[in-house]
Amino acid sequence: MDVSNPALAINCPTCGLLTARFGLYCHNCGYAIWPSSRFASAAFQAWRDADAARRDCRRFDLEPPHGPEDQGEVVDFEQKAHELGIHMPPPSSYPIIICLGLFFMALAAVPFGTPARIVLAILGLAVFLFGVIGWVVVEDTRHFPGFEAASQGAHTEAMAAAPGAAQPTETRVEEVN
Ligand SMILES: [Zn+2]
After folding, report:
1. What's the whole-number mean pLDDT along residues 113-121?
2. CB count in 10 Å sphere of residue 28
3. Cα of 58 to ligand 1 centre, how many Å?
4. Measured in angstroms, how far is the CA atom of residue 126 from the centroid of ligand 1?
5. In sequence order, what are the beta bridge partners of 39?
């Protein structure tokens, strides 16, 4: 075993395609590269321990891992949405309350006695409206102060710029925060 060879991948002796050097089988054709899994594992460990720079290498990778900057780009989707003018609703537990209201309203459809159904319908509607108002009116606007004013201003400007295209512009502009 040549531990001085830094490659983690080799060309398979049978199919000639690139495969993990310390894998038991070729990824492409299934050719057994090593006599046994234990043998391949021991070879990999010997290879890895021969150089401190190889300690983060994994056995079935085709190339060694790159630095921490290669761990993928971190994207702030909230920020991205803001830049693109997409209105993101804040995280909320009001949808659960809305579902609860719908549940009670659905129970009102069950043929219980009429007073019970009326009570269920009123209770369900009250809970439902509480959830909708809380979610759409209270919470959503609280997280976006000045949203109304900004969209109103942009709306007016857009209307002045292109009165003919008012309808499509309005839809687009409403989303700009
Ligand atoms: Zn192969």
Report:
1. 93
2. 13
3. 20
4. 67
5. none
Q: pLDDT at residue 169 above 80?
A: no
Q: Is the pTM of this model over 0.70?
A: no
Evaluate if residue 86 carries a pLDDT over 70: yes
Average pLDDT over residues 60-82: 79
Which tokens is 100 given?
């609860």
Alpha-helical regions (H) of the chain: 37-49, 77-84, 94-107, 114-132, 140-142, 147-161, 166-175
CA 23 to ligand 1 centroid distance, Å: 11
Which token pair is 176? 């700009």
Residue 77: left (phi > 0), alpha (psi -120 to 50), or beta? alpha
Q: Which two tokens stand for residue 22?
A: 């310390």
Nearest to 20 by CA among 44, 45, 53: 44
Q: Which domains does the chain have, with CATH numbers?
A: 9-65 (no CATH), 86-160 (1.10.287)
pLDDT in tens, 145-154: 555 555 555 5
CA of 32 to the centre of ligand 1 (A): 8
